[in-house]
Design goal:
With 167 residues, the chain is mainly alpha-helical. The protein has one domain (2-96, 125-165). Helix content is 67%, strand content 0%. It has five helices and no strands. It has helices spanning 2-28, 36-58, 64-93, 100-103, 138-165. Helix 1 (2-28) packs antiparallel against helix 2 (36-58) and helix 1 runs antiparallel to helix 5. The termini are close together. 32% of the residues are buried.
């Protein structure tokens, strides 16, 4: 039964790695420039994928309860990613306001010297999707993928917990 939990975790890890590699590919190969919220959505992947890889590496080397705790931690990390992607999608659809750093009008300028390099500054708006596939922006797709990853990790943790509880 724990083999099923490990297989599910391998699948969730592979999906998470493919997702962050796709985001980096769209940026560095496709030329899409991420906004502040896009960058924030990547953090769960930067932490969660290595954590899941560590968990897979130590899966049969440590107590199964520690693996379950590790899976719960990874699920929390990706749950945050799901929330962040959902928040960003809502900003794009205009359901709620986004942060002032990428959707607001700013705080004003104190003096005109701040305008000297205005052409060198690129601000990518968080409230406009750069592209939509099947009606979903990158943030919308990430919300769905992050929810799938979170659910898979929770299910793997559930299987692992109950398989080792009866053992």
């Amino acid at each position: 039964m724990t083999h099923n939990a490990k297989a599910i975790t391998i699948g969730a890890t592979a999906l998470a790695a493919a997702t962050i590699l796709s985001a980096l590919g769209f940026q560095h190969i496709g030329g899409y420039i991420p906004c502040d919220l896009c960058y924030e959505q990547r953090n769960p992947y930067y932490v969660g994928v290595p954590l899941l890889l560590i968990g897979l590496f130590v899966w049969n080397r440590i107590n199964a309860n520690y693996v379950t705790i590790l899976l719960a931690g990874a699920a929390l990390i990706f749950a945050y990613g799901t929330w962040m992607a959902g928040y960003h999608s809502g900003v794009e659809w205009g359901w709620w306001p986004g942060p002032d750093t990428c959707t607001g009008v700013g705080t004003g300028i104190a003096d005109f010297s701040q305008l000297e390099n205005i052409n060198d500054t690129v601000v990518i708006p968080c409230d406009r999707a750069q592209v939509r596939f099947f009606g979903l922006s990158f943030a919308g797709m990430n919300a769905i993928v992050s929810l799938v990853i979170t659910s898979a990790i929770l299910y793997a943790g559930h299987i692992n917990f109950h398989a080792n509880k009866s053992a």
